[in-house]
UniProtKB/TrEMBL annotation, chains A, B:
<dbReference type="InterPro" id="IPR023214">
    <property type="entry name" value="HAD_sf"/>
</dbReference>
<keyword id="KW-0378">Hydrolase</keyword>
<dbReference type="InterPro" id="IPR036412">
    <property type="entry name" value="HAD-like_sf"/>
</dbReference>
<dbReference type="GO" id="GO:0016791">
    <property type="term" value="F:phosphatase activity"/>
</dbReference>
<dbReference type="Pfam" id="PF00702">
    <property type="entry name" value="Hydrolase"/>
</dbReference>
<dbReference type="InterPro" id="IPR051540">
    <property type="entry name" value="S-2-haloacid_dehalogenase"/>
</dbReference>
<dbReference type="InterPro" id="IPR006439">
    <property type="entry name" value="HAD-SF_hydro_IA"/>
</dbReference>
<protein>
    <recommendedName>
        <fullName>Haloacid dehalogenase</fullName>
    </recommendedName>
</protein>
Amino acid sequence: MSLRNVSVLYHDVFGTVVDWQSSISDACRATLRAHPCRSPLDQQQLLDDYDWDEFTRHWRRGYMVTTRQLSHTGNPHGITVDQIHLDTLDHAWDATTRQHLNQRWHTLTPWPDSVHALRRLAAHFAIGTLTNGNLALMVDMARSARLPWHFILTADTLGSFKPDDRMYTSALRLMHLDQTPQRGALVAAHLFDLEAAKRNRMTTIFVSGRPTEDSLPHDGTVPDYIDIVVRDLDELARLAQDTLAP
Amino acid sequence: MSLRNVSVLYHDVFGTVVDWQSSISDACRATLRAHPCRSPLDQQQLLDDYDWDEFTRHWRRGYMVTTRQLSHTGNPHGITVDQIHLDTLDHAWDATTRQHLNQRWHTLTPWPDSVHALRRLAAHFAIGTLTNGNLALMVDMARSARLPWHFILTADTLGSFKPDDRMYTSALRLMHLDQTPQRGALVAAHLFDLEAAKRNRMTTIFVSGRPTEDSLPHDGTVPDYIDIVVRDLDELARLAQDTLAP
């Protein structure tokens, strides 16, 4: 499968385009300084010794587990990741502080290569998101991180969560690719997402070098549902340039 | 109602942001030159004497009538404006040529003030579309006309057509404004659209100076469902600057 036949790039966002771990861990520490914790634990100890990276991973795992469960049901009650994030958040802080901290998911920092690479990709393809995030969150993130999306497709606009098939089929249909699904490529750092995209006959591009996300097996074998492997978005932009330059 | 309480601007697009009439009339003439008409009418006469502005208005009216009808039904069959445009198009040309001409709706030319004004508005508000157009069409238009949308909400993502209430309520909910609908403003050159937006408690901004769209009554009275009147998007950007500058 070659980029030559692709016209639309759909990007996973959390972990693939933005670095949730450092963004959120830093925000937790800053929040703790500004809004001391109501728990009896010693505030200083929480700042010095508490593993906020692990706390962040726990928060993120809660989101992954819940969206995966909801993806099987088609999300009939229209729950958003903003609600999941808030529900998963430990109740150590009061509601206002939790809201403030939760808002940090709206302004995650991109990986260093992301913004420049997306700008270059935007010259060759229609580029957008296919994310389990919700629209308001993605709009905030695109504005704060200057992500140059042509379109934003989200779980709350499409009515379910990845890896539910209807996320991929709706995204293809809305870009008029339902008869030519291979012209739509999913760009993601998650194997489960790419496996579902391939089940729906999309082209699949694995971003292998995101330290917080999935890696290829140690023996270097590439699962057969992956068409293209790149280390990061910069490598994808270079590949596009080499493949598609006139 | 003041811009001070608005955080999201939802824009109508056809007629409000882009000039469909001159774009399409020009495309019709160019298409006729490149793909002579199959009808027995004299080709030269069609080029010289035929009123392509009227033809374009007729094409546009077909779209207006059909979307208005479908808006009452909630568009159960998921018809897009691309399909409506094709169906409305006179069968004088073969399918390939009709497809080519229809594609011109994807690259309509903005009014002279639109792009610069939208860039300025994007500094103050989340700006996006709330249009009866479909997503693939709007993405093509945003890319060709360099419209700096933060988000694109369309009839096919929201599942109906304006002025169906669910278009406005869904747009508000997706931007987390369902509890504060007045923080969402509809910007449109069409009275029916603004009337529906006000019924859903949005702020309403009438763009009064688009020659192909609605005007205020000659006696200068402003209907009570309109909060703010501007001549064009440039005047709206100046108003935002004056109202919101620190």
